[in-house]
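Retry 2 of 3 after timeout on previous attempt. Resubmitting structure tokens to design endpoint.
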């Protein structure tokens, strides 16, 4: 390893370069059909808890290395809107880069809305499929330790990232949740002959900062800048409209009232 073990895109690239020599690196959708040539597998997964922008940076890097991961996306997040016009374009960009889009669901949302679990998952998968133009068949639960709703999936779900086989059986599960490695950095596992499931949250690898707190603070600044720019655009748009108010009022009169 050239760079130190830290959350950075540079180190992530090194990890993927070694991983793709020693393993078949794939996603949930393809892991049962990918040609293996006697190699062990890494299923590469990303949960999007904080936004689309870090995911796009990570996805672009993976694409350049010929790697197709699964990006699990939330549809009811308070931090980003995956089905707004901008969010939908970002999702389609992830698809163009060859990645699988799965659902990162939050059972507490279904509970709060009074939807049963199966219905909630089925509705979200349908919307996600419509927006990406593909078929969403993989799911991962947000904050799996904090909710205990019974898992009862509709038939569309073919891969659950927390299925016991991905966690403790056929695959060894490694996660960077909360910006911390519990069993060493991914790079310390790249010479073992076993199947892995890696969960990497793009925000930790893409954003600058010494620890998870600084990385989240950087995301806060980026999000604030984006909101400020959007509202500034709206102000300018209103100013332009008001400058031509008489013309617009006349056109409105003509189109909708004076028939
Ligand atoms: Zn490392
Ligand atoms: Zn999550």
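Retry 2 succeeded. Sequence:
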């Amino acid at each position: 390893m050239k760079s130190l073990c830290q959350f950075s895109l540079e180190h992530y690239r090194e990890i993927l370069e070694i991983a793709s020599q020693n393993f078949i690196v794939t996603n949930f959708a393809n892991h049962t059909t990918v040609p293996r040539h006697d190699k062990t597998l890494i299923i590469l997964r990303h949960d999007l808890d904080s936004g689309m922008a870090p995911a796009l940076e990570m996805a672009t890097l993976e694409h350049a290395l010929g790697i197709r991961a699964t990006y699990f996306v939330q549809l009811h997040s308070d931090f980003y809107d995956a089905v707004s016009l901008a969010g939908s374009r970002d999702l389609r960009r992830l698809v163009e880069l060859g990645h699988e889009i799965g659902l990162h669901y939050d059972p507490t949302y279904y509970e709060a809305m009074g939807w049963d679990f199966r219905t909630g998952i089925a509705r979200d998968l349908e919307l996600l499929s419509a927006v990406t133009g593909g078929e969403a068949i993989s799911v991962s639960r947000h904050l799996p330790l904090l909710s205990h709703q019974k898992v009862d999936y509709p038939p569309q779900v073919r891969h659950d990232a927390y299925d016991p086989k991905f966690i403790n059986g056929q695959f060894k599960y490694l996660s960077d949740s909360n910006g911390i490695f519990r069993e060493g950095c991914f790079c310390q596992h790249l010479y073992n002959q076993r199947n892995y499931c890696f969960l990497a949250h793009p925000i930790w690898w893409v954003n600058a900062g010494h620890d998870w707190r600084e990385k989240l603070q950087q995301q806060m600044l980026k999000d604030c800048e984006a909101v400020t720019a959007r509202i500034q655009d709206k102000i300018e748009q209103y100013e332009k409209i008001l400058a031509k108010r008489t013309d617009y009022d006349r056109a409105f009169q003509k189109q909708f009232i004076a028939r």
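Attempt log closed. The chain is about 45% helix and 15% strand.
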